[in-house]
Every structure is written in C-alpha cells, then in structure tokens.
Specification:
Blueprint lengths: L2 H14 L8 H9 L4 E4 L6 H11 L3 E5 L3 H12 L8 E4 L5 H12 L5 E4 L1 H4 L2 H8 L3 E6 L19 H7 L5 E5 L4 H10 L6 E4 L7 E7 L4 H11 L4 E5 L3 H13 L4 E4 L5 H12 L5 E4 L12 E6 L6 H8 L9 E7 L1 H11 L4 H19 L4 H8 L16 H4 L4 E3 L1 H13 L6 H9 L4 H5 L16 H14 L2 E4 L5 E4 L1 H8 L5 E3 L9 H4 L11 H18 L3 H4 L2 H10 L4 H4 L7 H21 L17 H12 L4 H7 L4 H13 L7 H7 L2 H13 L5 H8 L5 H15 L2
Parallel strand pairs: 1-6, 1-7, 2-4, 2-5, 3-4, 5-6, 8-13, 9-11, 9-12, 10-11, 12-13
Antiparallel strand pairs: 14-17, 15-16
Keywords: ATP-binding, DNA damage, DNA recombination, DNA repair, DNA-binding, Helicase, Hydrolase, Isomerase, Metal-binding, Nucleotide-binding, Zinc
Pfam family, one: RecQ_Zn_bind
Enzyme class: isomerase
C-alpha cells in the first residue's frame, strides 16, 4: 500500500471501525479525493453512503449531500454524529428547521466544524442558501438517489432536474452521483443531465446470489398462502409490500388474528406510530412489517429473511430495490411475488390520467415487470440483463436460486421461428414495439399496422401457426440473448443487433421455454375458500351432501338452506372437526354452525380418523371481521326498520354491495327481517309465489329463478326475497 492508501485505511478504522473496504468503495473514495467527477452505481446494501461520508470527513470544507427523503437524511446525520464528539459535524438543512436552528447550522459551517450538510433539492433553490454556500469552502456535492433525475428512473423528481445549474453557481466543485438502481438508459440520462460525461464511473455487480426469486399466481386465497409461508419461516423477519394503505391494514390484521406478530407501516400513520413500528421491527419485537413502499428507505436490518410482494410493483427497479432488502448479511433471502394480470390492468388504469409521455414511460416500465413475471427463463439472468449486466445461468453465482431454474419448463427447438422473428423486425424497418411485431407475425391488424400498410406485405401473418403467447415468449428470450435490442429512448421499439443479422445468415439451435400461464380460476371455483391450494376430498364431499339431504328432509327444507355447495366443498378441503373450526368455513357463521353443525363435524371427525387424514390446520385462516363493523351496522338498522337505501348510502355502499353483505349475513346463520322493505315492493301474493319457488327448488341460484319467472321479477327483488327466505327458513 502507498502512503495515501494507508492514510484512508487509517481513517476508515478511526471513523467507522472497519479494517477493510467493501467492493468498489476504495476506488470510489480515491476518485473523490482526487477531485474527479464520480458516478457510483451500487446495489442497496453495498455500502454506498460510506463512499461520500469518509472523503467528506477527511477533506477540507463541507460536503453537500442532496437527498430526496427527510427521514433518510435524519438517519444518516444521527449515524455520523455518533462517530464524533461534535454534534455539528453533520447537519440537515430543510424546511423543518426554525430560524435559530438555521443560524446554528450556518455558524457550524462557517467555523469549519460541519463536514456533511444534507439538503433536500428544494432547499438548494432558495437564493439565501445558495448565496451562503457560495461564501464557504465546499469539498464536493454528492447527489444521492441520482436516478430521481431521470424520468426513466422509478422515482422521478422534477426538482432534481435543475441541480446542475445550482451546482454551477457554487463554483468549480466535483460532483458525485450515486444510485442503487439504474438501467443503462437511466445511467446515460444522469450523466447527461449533470453534465459530467467525463465522470469516473464505478458499477458494482447487481447480482445478489443469496436471494431466491419466486413468482406465484395470485388467487383469492393469497392470505392463506402468505400465512402458510410465514409459518414455515417461523420467527424470521420479513416484509410484505402492498400497493394500498387499506390493503396494508387488512393484511396486518389477518396476520395478527392468525397468531403472527405483524405491524402495518404506511405514510397515512402518524409519525409516532411509524417510528414505533419501525423500531419494533428493528428490535425484533415483531417478525413482520406489512408496508407500502414508504417503508424500507434506509432500513438497515441485515437479517430480513423474506420479502413478499402482495401486489406486483410498477417497475423492475422498484422490485429490485424492495427485494434487495432481504438477506443483506449474506444469509438466505426468499423473494416471493404474487402475480395476476388483473393487477397490471389496475396499474394501467391508474396511469391513464397522466400526461402522454409519462403514460408511455409507465407502460414501458410495467411491461418489463410483466415479462419478468411471465418468463420461464432464469429470473436472475432476466433481471441482470435489464440492468445491463451479463449473467451465465450455468456457472454464475446463485444460478440455481430461482423457481424457474429449479422447476424448469419443457424446452422446444425454435431455430426457424427465431429466424422468422428476426426477419420481421428487419423487414418492418425498426418501427414497431413488441406488440406490433407479434401482431404482424400472427396476422392481426391494429391501427398502427394499418397506418404503415404492413398488412399488405407478403410476410404479414407468416407466423400464424403459433399463437400470440408463443411469439411474445420467444421475443423476450431472444432479447435477453442479445439478437434483438429494445430501444428505451423510443419507448421500447425493437431493433435487430449485429448478432441478430449474423443469426439470420447462419442459424444455430435455439431452445426456448414457454411462458408461465398465470390464469386465475374464476370466482365461482375459488369461493370455496381454498380450491386453489388443494382440491376438495371428493369422497367426503359425497358423504356430506348425503348428510345434508337427510338433515334437510327432516326439517322439510331444500338442502341449500342447510349449507350451500361452496360450504360443503370447503369442509371437504379443511376437515373442520369442532363447531369452532366450522365458523371459519366459507359461508358458515356462528349461528349456522351451532344450528346444523354437530352432525357434520361428527361425520368429518370419524372420516378423518378412519382414513388417517393429516388435517391442514394452517388452512383454517381466521378472518379478521374487517367487515364486522359494517355487518353490525346493517343488522342493527334493519332491526330499526331503516330504509335499505339509507343504510347503503350511510356506509357508502351500492345497493348491489349492500345486498351482498346481507346475503353473507343470512347465509352465515343470522336472521334479518326485511319484510318491512319488501312489503313496499311486492304484495303478499308475489312474496308467497317466490317463497314457494325457493321451497320447491333444488338450487338457490338466482339465474334459475330469473329463468323460472321469465321477467316477472328483477334480479334485486329475487335476491331480497332469497334473503328473506333463508332468514326465515334456515335461521
């Protein structure tokens, strides 16, 4: 080591207590100490902040650190103050300070005490601050979270765009840009915007070999699935990300009710609660935090063992950053995402109100997430390719750490199809994105294709022997192998590369694996509360139906009055053997369980014993009674004979939603007397006619009743009569 190197190692030990630098830290620090513009791309957990903290502490003058998050600045300032006896060594300058505090900050800077000054980009635009900073020695300006500069970054902030002009006013000071995530396009954007094309660029590998990536279909039973997953990782720390605050609250409640220590975290909670929940997680008083993405910025918990995405994120950058909070200590980290195309459509709808350019970017970023979820190639290879890094899925570190590699899909030879695909990209002259290329292959016309007259070309429809899904899967795999490239500048137009042109001339074997099918079962089958995670025991289903028939006959009512079909199927899936467990069966509440349950649980209990069945105890997910407040309100106000329309509007429900709630109440065994409301709509004869129909009918399906009465009654009248019937006859 030369004397300079010895010097910085000494300082590292003195301030931070480390004897060794991590990864690229030393090279970055040397570049900064040499007064060079420096650009650092280093994944979360790679020790980014030390790269500017150490040189700031060593050098003359004050370093300015621009950061977008007040909470993050505060954490860092506290951390640096803990390294020194002087409180003034680091300060924050933002809108939350009083006049007196601002005066103190200026005094400490002027006296040369302050080494690091954290500012929000907005503060830097204030003339008085700029004038003050011009009068004191500045060592360098560090811009943290630099991807905020690029609208292609996942966290674009317009105020970041103007930073370069402000820094220029401070004289000739070196700039250090740092980001934990950046695709090649974002990197180029940052360098261009900060006007530092000459910067020394340091890029650490984005590969986190200890993380296991998995994507599962999102079904109605996602809650049971998450609970089962957490119980398999008992006592370990984890984060669950949801897109909405409401979902955060409800998932946290479900987990608590099911014996998992969990707390919610989102920006809607007051600062005190947020800080308390964050501390509980850090101090391991709770195992799981359920959060919106507001959580985790600057969370330095090294032993997060799993990160679950309840909802798919808006970009692969976000996904990478959020999953990157797992396994920072190098130990195991399981990254599980739930995917359904419905969620993607929701996000697209959400974007439709934005300016066109922003929409285009949003769609392009979202399509990458879709491609990642649906692909059946190595997820690690796919992810690293997105960040501009090559990965060898045979020999690379962590190569077997994802669901696709461990459970590979069947591969087929696609050499000829690759040639066909490449020729179409070449012959349509690089004007199309993925969708139009696939449409050209299968021969489907849309406005863009019509405008370019592609539908009149001889090659239009030349790939119609395969479907859209096949071509989309092939296109993604060809992109990752580098025969095609996607031009992000033009929102994802596909271009052929030199390698692609060579492939057309001299094709070689290309083994493709088909995409995953993430089809959601339709609502009817999932209503059973567990269909997706197992199938009902058919022998037991038959026995339970027989018993239901017997009980119904004895009581002189149709079988559906005792228990509906979904309830019977759910019993045959979860094997409840006590009345208590029966409460948790789909569509069975306390009232119904007590009234009819004893014979059913006795039968199931015998069956379980005779057949040595291991009961899936974790399948009995206790519900939180989230809607219980609504239900209570409905029951009380129907007792008071309040008009149903008033009850609905008081709770912000549509009539349809109110009837749904009422159906759940009566099907779970609680009485609702709505005769007062029905008397205004239907006369006694009409009510009797519908009552008799349900009494004689084999099924309680509304479609059957509509057919039977052929337009005499509308759907709401029949649903309300069914509620009255079940309430009187069953409860």
């Amino acid at each position: 080591m030369n004397s300079n190197e010895i010097e910085i190692h000494k300082e590292l030990k003195k301030y931070f207590g480390f004897s060794q630098f991590k990864g690229l830290q030393e090279q970055v620090i040397t570049s900064i100490l040499d007064g060079k513009n420096t650009f650092v791309i280093m994944p979360t957990g790679g020790g980014k902040s030390l790269c500017y903290q150490l040189p700031a502490l060593i050098q003359e003058g004050t370093a300015i650190v621009v950061s977008p998050l007040i909470a993050l600045m505060k954490n860092q300032v506290d951390a640096i103050r803990s390294l020194s006896s002087e409180n003034g060594i680091a300060h924050v300058l933002n809108s939350s300070l009083t006049k007196t505090e601002i005066a103190q900050v200026k005094k400490d800077i002027t006296s040369g005490l302050t080494k690091l000054l954290y500012v929000a980009p907005e503060s830097l635009t204030k003339e008085e601050y700029v004038a003050f900073l011009q009068s004191v020695p500045i060592s360098f300006v560090a811009i943290d979270e630099a991807h905020c500069i690029s609208e292609w970054g996942h966290d674009f902030r317009p105020e970041y765009r103007n930073l370069r002009n402000i820094i220029k006013q401070l004289g000739k000071v070196p700039i250090i840009g740092l980001t934990a995530t950046a695709t090649p396009k974002v990197q180029e954007d940052i360098l261009k915007n900060l006007d530092m094309a000459d910067a020394n660029t340091f890029k650490a590998s984005f590969n986190r070999p200890n993380l296991y990536y998995e994507v599962r279909t999102k079904t109605k039973n996602i809650e049971s699935d998450i609970i089962r997953f957490i119980k398999q990782h008992k006592g370990k720390s984890g984060i669950i990300y949801c897109l909405s605050r409401k979902k955060v609250e409800s998932i946290a409640e479900v987990l608590q009710v099911n014996g998992i220590s969990a707390v919610p975290y989102h920006a809607g909670l007051d600062a005190k609660t947020r800080a308390k929940h964050q501390d509980m997680f850090l101090m391991e008083d709770v195992d799981v935090v359920v959060a919106t993405i507001a959580f985790g910025m600057g969370i330095d918990k090294p032993d997060v063992r799993f990160v679950i995405h309840h909802d798919i994120p808006k970009s692969l950058e976000s996904y990478y950053q959020e999953t990157g909070r797992a396994g920072r200590d190098g130990g195991e980290g399981h990254c599980l995402a739930y995917y359904s195309y419905k969620d993607v459509e929701k996000l697209e709808k959400f974007m439709s109100g934005k300016p066109v350019a922003e929409q285009e970017i949003g769609f392009a970023l979202l399509q990458e997430v879709v491609a990642y979820a649906e692909t059946s190639m190595s997820r690690r290879k796919f992810l690293l390719h997105y960040f501009g890094e090559e990965f060898d899925s045979e020999t690379g570190e962590g190569a077997d750490m994802d669901d696709n590699v461990r459970n590979p899909k069947h591969k087929v030879e696609a050499k000829d199809q690759v040639v066909k695909l490449l020729e179409i990209v070449r012959d349509t002259k690089h004007i199309y994105k993925s969708k139009e290329i696939v449409f050209t292959l299968i021969g489907r016309i849309n406005a863009v294709i019509k405008a370019h007259k592609t539908d009149t070309q001889p090659y239009f429809g030349s790939g119609s022997d395969h479907d859209e899904k096949y071509w989309m899967a092939l296109l993604r795999q060809v992109l990752v192998t580098g025969l095609l490239s996607k031009d992000i500048e033009t929102y994802g137009v596909i271009k052929i590369t030199k390698e692609g042109l060579d492939f057309i001339k001299k094709p070689v074997s290309f083994m493709m694996s088909e995409d995953h099918e993430y089809t959601e079962a339709d609502d009817e089958t999932i209503v059973t509360g567990g269909k997706s995670s197992g199938t009902a025991d058919e022998v037991l289903t038959g026995m339970l139906r027989e018993l239901r028939k017997k009980v119904a006959k004895k009581l002189g009512v149709p079988p559906f009055v005792v228990f509906q079909d979904p309830s019977i199927e759910d019993m045959a899936l979860k094997y409840p053997i006590t009345i208590q467990e029966l409460y948790n069966i789909h569509g069975v509440g306390e009232g119904k369980a007590k009234k009819y349950g004893s014979e059913f649980v006795a039968l199931i209990s015998r069956y379980v014993e005779d057949n040595d069945i291991i009961r899936p105890d974790d399948l009995v997910v206790k519900s939180t009674g989230v809607n219980s407040a609504n239900k209570l309100y409905i029951i009380q106000n129907i007792d008071r004979k309040l008009p149903l329309s008033d009850i609905a509007s008081a709770k912000g429900l549509t009539m349809d939603a109110l009837i749904k709630e009422m159906e759940q109440i009566v099907y779970s065994g609680t009485k609702l007397n709505i005769k007062y409301w029905l008397d205004d709509i239907l006369d006694d004869d009409q009510q009797e006619e519908i009552h008799d129909y349900f009494m004689e009918s084999e099924s309680d399906k509304i479609e059957d009743a509509l057919k039977e009465f052929d337009g005499d009654y509308d759907i709401d009248e029949l649903r309300l009569m069914r509620i009255k019937f079940i309430s009187e006859v069953a409860n």
